[in-house]
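User: Some background: our group keeps a shared notebook of sequences we're curious about, and every so often someone picks one and asks for a predicted structure to add to the entry. Today it's my turn. The entry only has the sequence so far, pasted here. Could you supply the structure so I can complete it?
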Amino acid sequence: MPKATVELHADGRFDVCMRLPDGTENWSRCHFTEVMEPEKISVAGSMEGPSGKWFNIVTTIILMEETGGTRLEVVQDYKVFSAKALRSLTGVEAGWNSTLTQFGQEAERLAAPSLHGTFTLERTLQAPQATPDEQGSEGSLVQRRRRLRGPGAI
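Assistant: Of course. Here's the predicted structure to add to the notebook entry:
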C-alpha cells in the first residue's frame, strides 16, 4: 500500500492506493460514514483503476468483545460496473486475511510488556576562560554565545 489518507471520523477521508504486482495502481476513494468507538466503523466509496471506476463499495466493520479478545466482523456490499472489476473481487478474501493477520501481529506487539524510562544527558565542554571585561555584563555573555555557536544564534 504505497499511499493512503485516513481521517478516522465521520465524513473523514479513507483513500488507499493498492499497487498490483505489475505496478498498476488502483485507488479506493472512500469516506467514513460512521465511527462509533469502540464498536463500529462504516466506510463508503468506490474503487478506481486505470480505466475508471470499477465498483462502489460499502464496508461495515463491527468489533465485539469476546473472552480472550475482540471479534471482528466485516461486511462488504458492492455495485460492480464491469466483468474485469468482478474478477478483481476474487482476491478480496485473501486481502482481508492478510490485513487481519498483520493487525493481529501488531496487537500482540502492542500488548507485550515494554520498558519505559527517562534519562538526562549532560555534557561538559572545554571553553576558553572569560576575560575580565566579559564576566560582568549580559551583553558580553550574548556575544560569547554567538562566537561559540555561530552567526545568528543567541
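Suggested note for the entry: Confidence is low (pLDDT under 50) at residues 138-154. The CA atoms of residues 27 and 137 lie 64 Å apart.
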